[in-house]
Structure formats: C-alpha cells, structure tokens
Amino acid sequence: MMLVIRREGFEQKYGGLRYQVRSSYTVEGERREVLRDWHYDLGQGMWSGSADDWYFDWFGERVSSPVRYLVHTDGRVGVDDGGGTFLEIAPSIPTLIESHALTDAVSTWDRTTAEVDSFALAEQLDGLTDIPEASGSTIRWRLSDNVAVEEFRNWSSDAPRRWRAFIWSRGEAGRRQVEEAAVRAVATQQTLSATG
Length: 196
Prior knowledge:
With about 200 residues, the protein is α+β, with helices and mostly antiparallel strands. Helices cover about 30% and strands about 40% of the residues. The protein has four helices and eleven strands; from the N terminus they run H-E-E-E-E-E-E-H-E-H-E-E-E-E-H. It has helices at about 1-15, 95-105, 120-125, 170-195, and strands at about 15-25, 30-50, 55-60, 70, 75-80, 85-90, 110, 130, 140-145, 145-155, 165-170. The protein has a six-stranded antiparallel β-sheet, with helices on both faces. Strands 7-11-10-9-8 form a five-stranded antiparallel β-sheet. It is globular and about 55 Å long.
C-alpha cells in the first residue's frame, strides 16, 4: 500500500517536471560545458528488497547510462547500477533538485583538476558553509563566496562506496584557497604514508 501511495505522490508532485543542469569541466586546459536534461516521469518498475523495503523507478537524467533511477518508499533517491541493489544518492527528491541547482549555479566557475585525491583536498578546505537543503548521508555541499565543494559517495554496487568530491573556485581568491588546500592535502598524505 505504501508503494502505491508513494508512486501516486511522486506523480502528482513531480510528474512532468523537466529542467536542464549545466556543468563544466576542463580538459587539457580547455573549458567544456555540458547540459543535462532531467525528466521526472514515473517509470513502470517496482521492486522489493524485503517486506518493508520497496522502491520504484523514474526516468531521471536523459543520457545513455547504465543506471536506473529509483525512489524508495521512505523518500530516498537512488540508483541501481545493474547489481540489483538500491544505492542511495540523495535523501529526497527536493535535496536532489537543490543539488542540481547548485551544480548549475557553479557551472561558470573553474572546476579543480588537482593531482591530489579530490576528497582529501575537499577535507582541507575550511571556511565553507554547509548547505543542508542539498545534503544528506551520501551527498554534502559546502560553499563560500569563492569555493564550492560537492562531496558524494560513488555509485557502485561492485566495490565499497568511497567518498569523492568535485571542487570549484571563482576568481583569484578561490583559486589561491584551493591551491593552499592542495599543498596541505599533499603534506597530510605524505605524513600518512611515512607513518603507515
């Protein structure tokens, strides 16, 4: 019964919602922008992981993708990457939408392609404000006027879901803050390697 109620609620609240999310990245010094379409149309599939563990599919991002987008009856948003497992990507649809809005907002900033692990670098960035509306147990956004960080657990059922991060900076102050954090991240990794 809860599955039917949640599916109908999704259809009434989000059915037909469409928007585009801009994002950018740099390859060999060249900035590239990507525009992704998201469609909030209800799918036909329904699954159960256990007696209280039901979820259903929806269209999601309109790209060739090996994942199926899902909503759990408890409201969490997830994917199935072919492993038959619900992998949470956001605690709710509103959180996912807020995350997309932030991705779009920072698309004109410079995305960092540091040689250090992106999550280790993100941990060294301070002075950022948590954005609870776009965050949860598997995704976290932090912002300042010149730096933005999206930390997220990768979408994989084949390996442990490790944390990764995307980092953007704006202007000289943002670039300098990220560079200083990268130096600290390298020093921390070297210390851990020496003691490990």
